[in-house]
Amino acid sequence: MKPLLWLVEDEPSIADTLIYTLESEGFQVRWFERGEPALQALQQGLPALVILDVGLPDINGFELCRRLLAQAADLPILFLTARSGELDRLIGLEIGADDYVAKPFSPREVSARVRTILRRLHKQQRLQQPTLYHFGAFTLDEEGATICYHQQPLPLTRYEFLLLKTLLQAPGRVFSRQQLMDIVWAQAEESLDRTVDTHIKTLRAKLRAMDAAEPPIHTHRGLGYSVSRQP
């Protein structure tokens, strides 16, 4: 699906040229000759990016930028302006714009700037997305320190989370109490082997509260504990 851009520009000749170039390079473009209609259109959905002229007849472009970002804080904005002074560029960037192009400009330069902004944002979004690991009915979000069971988050304490994570990351492997103590309670002072048994018991209780089936945490008498290979 083609990325949707909004162009807020009151000069038809500039708008026509930009629309032609942007659409020929794979974008959809919605054109606004005034700022207020663009604000109202936010209620219908967000574009991928806004190209915004500073010198609009109904509202100052900087003020429009502030009001757009007040409603959609992550909305990417590229300023167009006839004013090339450093102060104006700084104002635009400081109030939240992503880039700034001074007139006269090449439409292809504007298109290239748009692609650069969208590519950078895409990379940032990918980095911010949590890495999830799936183990049968379990989903582990290691960065968020959460584990879901049958798509429901488990209310785990710190050590319950670390204990279950350790078992899940090696399904079928039997961990002795001492191995679990060394991995999970490595930084704790004066912890006892029975601590593992207590936490296994509370984990099983929390799993049963979400699913009546027998929890897939297994006791191996004299050896330790494991989780099923396909829990």
TrEMBL record:
The keyword DNA-binding applies. It comes from the Bacteria. CDD domains: REC_OmpR, trans_reg_C. Keywords: DNA-binding, Phosphoprotein. Pfam families: Response_reg (PF00072), Trans_reg_C (PF00486). InterPro entries: CheY-like_superfamily, OmpR/PhoB-type_DNA-bd, Sig_transdc_resp-reg_C-effctor, Sig_transdc_resp-reg_receiver, WalR-like, WH-like_DNA-bd_sf. Gene3D superfamilies: 3.40.50.2300, 6.10.250.690, Winged helix-like DNA-binding domain superfamily/Winged helix DNA-binding domain. The keyword DNA-binding applies. Residues 130-229 bind DNA. Residues 4-118 form the Response regulatory domain. The modification 4-aspartylphosphate is found at D53. Residues 130-229 form the OmpR/PhoB-type domain. This is Two-component system response regulator CreB.
